[in-house]
Amino acid sequence: MNKEELLNYRDADGYIDYDRFESEKGKNLKTIDEDRGSSSRNKKWVFFDNGTVMLRDDQFENDGTKFTTYQELIFEELAKQVNFPVAHYDLIKRGNKRGIMTYNVLDNEDNKGMTMYSLRDFMDQIECKDDNKFNYNIADAYSAIKNFSKESGIEKEQYAKVMVDFTKMQVLDLFLSSTDRHAENISFLYGVDKVSKKPVIKLAPLYDNELSCGSDLTEEEMIMCSEDFREAKQKAALQQTCATVPYEDAMKDRNSTPNSQLLKFCMEIDDEVEEFVGDCLEKINIIDAVNKVQDRINTKLPYNYVDYLLANFSEKKKEMNKIVNDFYQVI
């Protein structure tokens, strides 16, 4: 049985009814529990003939938030607008609990036989200057990637590209206010090239994107942002990523916000990153992403959520545009 069979069990609210699928067709499928990550949510892998699918409950449903499951799908569509690799997500419910399902990125033909390592795995192998459970110094991350690559015999040109891709990820997360991309929510794929037989490494598609665009706000807070641009601006300004810049760079730009410091730091890394910033400013379109998701799940997203997304990204784009303009004025 193929994993696409699940799509035939979507209900009127846009969620795939896994309980109904399981009772009708999925009773004999092999499953295993997934114990990595947060212990507050129920997760398991389901094995289909053409790959594995993870089912994961929404851990934020009891915290006053309602829309984080939708946000995984929204982030996916936004990342695709700038051609950035991202895991595929869909809505699912089981046992009357909302959640999401995602296809295993290691099932992709280009990734078969590769091993996934988190940034945390890499950083545990070096002495970090600045690191805690959630925030990490971007310079430490570069050092960790370089250290693993050298130890694994990966050529400099290749791991340099991985660092550029990693930096572009920082840019995307800044634009989309991804506040949960800590070192365990960033991964790399390591393996051997099938043709050259040389070791290879690449950034894994992005995952765990539910806490982006301020989706962890309550519905009441979202309504306030939609009705008052000052509230939206304030909330957007407070949304920061987990990466920090080296101390000396922060001190050179000490009067700027952490978002400003990080974006300017990234733009100085490589011309490709600078070009990617332009793509984010030009191509990221919230309305288009909302429409794509609604078409896919065959139902409208909640009005208050959509209205808030438009207000939030409008303010975030203004913030990013100002930082970019400041960057070019200085240089």
Explained architecture:
With 331 residues, the protein is α+β, with helices and mostly antiparallel strands. Helices cover 45% and strands 15% of the residues. The protein has a domain at 3-104: 2-Layer Sandwich (Phosphorylase Kinase, domain 1). The protein has twelve helices and eleven strands. Helix 5 (156-175) runs parallel beside helix 10, helix 6 (219-227) crosses helix 12 (303-330) and helix 7 (229-238) crosses helix 12. It is globular and about 60 Å long.
SSE blueprint:
Elements lengths: L15 E2 H9 L4 E3 L9 E6 L2 E7 L10 H14 L7 E6 L2 E7 L11 E4 H5 L12 E2 H14 L4 H20 L11 E6 L6 E5 L15 H9 L1 H10 L4 E2 L2 H6 L5 H10 L3 H13 L2 H12 L5 H28 L1
Parallel strand pairs: 1-5, 8-11
Antiparallel strand pairs: 2-3, 3-4, 4-6, 5-6, 7-9, 9-10
CATH top level class name of one domain: Alpha Beta
Radius of gyration: 20 Å
What is the CATH architecture term of one domain? Answer: 2-Layer Sandwich
- Report helical residue fraction: 40-55%
Structural class: alpha+beta
The major β-sheet equals:
6 strands, mixed
What is the H-and-E element order?
A: EHEEEHEEEHEHHEEHHEHHHHH
Number of helices, counting only DSSP H or I runs of 4 residues or more: 12
Quaternary structure of the protein: single chain
Write down the CATH topology of one domain: Phosphorylase Kinase, domain 1
The number of strands is 11
